[in-house]
């Protein structure tokens, strides 16, 4: 990366992360019992798969940020179904653990050991925040909820992703970016950048 991501200099990073968690939580609580097997904009993922993915991501935060764990030491602990019989409670528990770990004194000054290599905890928190924002839109579309994302979160996500946008598709985890229309608003540009056709 040639530029520092927005999270490196954002004094409101924890607030943005918390708002993104709240946004996704709101959508999880809106999922009806008959919607968990419905498709999402994420290829091959159902609503259950999407929420399970985000739940597992939140469960990774305490060991990585608080304990200094490595991918190898955690192993496959967070693979498979993390939701169990009470999907919403499982999400709420994981989200609270993630929020608490990032908010511990000194947490944002630590180094975390990610699959892509060592990184600052602020960079990791920024990445997690963007993931929550974009997947909140995915979940909203899947369940028919309000798809409008908060402007400040959209602006943050665009600033955060821009320095490494070209690397997203290369990672194999993201679809190719979509060319936005000339009159696209900021949210459309973000979603197009992340491979979503709106």
Query: What shape does the CA trace take?
Result: globular
CATH class: Mainly Alpha
* Helical percentage: 40-55%
Strand proportion, as a percent range, falls in under 5%
In spatial order, strands of the major sheet run: 1-2
What is the CATH architecture annotation? Up-down Bundle
> Number of folding domains?
1
Model description:
The chain contains 8 helices and 2 strands; from the N terminus they run ααααββαααα. Helix content is 54%, strand content 4%. It has helices at residues 13-29, 47-66, 71-74, 87-103, 121-143, 151-161, 165-170, 186-193, and strands at 111-114, 117-120. The radius of gyration is 16 Å and the shape is globular.
Brief summary:
The chain has helices at residues 13-29, 47-66, 71-74, 87-103, 121-143, 151-161, 165-170, 186-193, and strands at residues 111-114, 117-120. It is mainly α and 198 residues long. It has a two-stranded antiparallel ribbon with strand order 1-2.
Kindly list the characteristics that best describe this protein.
198 residues; mainly alpha; Four Helix Bundle (Hemerythrin (Met), subunit A); globular
Question: What's the structural blueprint in terms of helices and strands?
Answer:
Layout lengths: L12 H17 L17 H20 L4 H4 L12 H17 L7 E4 L2 E4 H23 L7 H11 L3 H6 L15 H8 L5
Antiparallel strand pairs: 1-2
